[in-house]
Amino acid sequence: MPAEPTDFDKFYAEKIEPVVPRLKEVQAESQAWKSGMVVSICVAAFYFISVYVNPSSGDGWFIFLLVCTILLCFYQYVRSKDIYVEEHKTLVIREVISYVAPGVVFKPFKNVSSKAFKESRLYQYDYKYYEGNDYMEGVINGIRFQCSELNVTCNDPDGAGFLTVFKGLFFVAALGGRISGGTFIWPRKEHAGAERLNDYYELLPIKGTQKISTGDDGFDQYFRLRSSAPSEAAMLLTTERRQAMLKICQATQLPLSFSFVTGRCYVGIPLKDDLLEASSGEAGQKAEVQKHYITISLIAGLIRQLALPDLL
What's this model's pTM, rounded to 2 decimal places? Predict the structure, then answer.
């Protein structure tokens, strides 16, 4: 069973505090190389200004030495920063996952496949760039699931850079053969934020589906529903599951989207920040680790709160 968030203080004291010195050591090395690079660039800038004012003072070997120093500092900074990221994933994220959801496998440089993302049919806009990381997979309460952070973008039709199709955590759970149709639950535009693609999704619904009303005013006012199998949608959207969906959105203050398509449940959790990445602040900060803890607890808790085992 997933650990309860009230266990966080005990977890932090037992698992994270002992490794904070190592994290600070690696972070300090990265910062030292960054400082060296900045100082070298400043010295180079001052030297080139001096040579510009007095060309006869130039020294080719000194210039060569400055360039080599800058390149060395840059290389070591990037290398040590990558080491810090790896240490953070190993010493913090893996420990959080092991504690909150024992047995779940963490692969930091993998992501949920684009095939699964498309099959959810939650985000229909054609994307150009698809990337992600921090992949997790495992079994909780008999439900096999996978989840990762994704950043999916497309070219702006107006030529103003890129539009976000989806950025956040994407969750997939296998439910078996009881679900054969497609039921889609999106937050209404007024709850989904200011993303321009929201208008596109509302104006161009998924073919073969129809609007659904549950008769639950609170739920229907927050979400819009479509389904290719209305009777199956009624089976899925029990009072308890509707309340759970609303509660999750209200508790997290995030406009989650859900779909149940041919034996799978998909959940899109939109986020602006990369919640499982190391921050630029002091290594091992309790507030930062708690952010990771809450995020992973949310992922593990989806299975319980949505009562997914009841759909097997």
Answer: 0.84
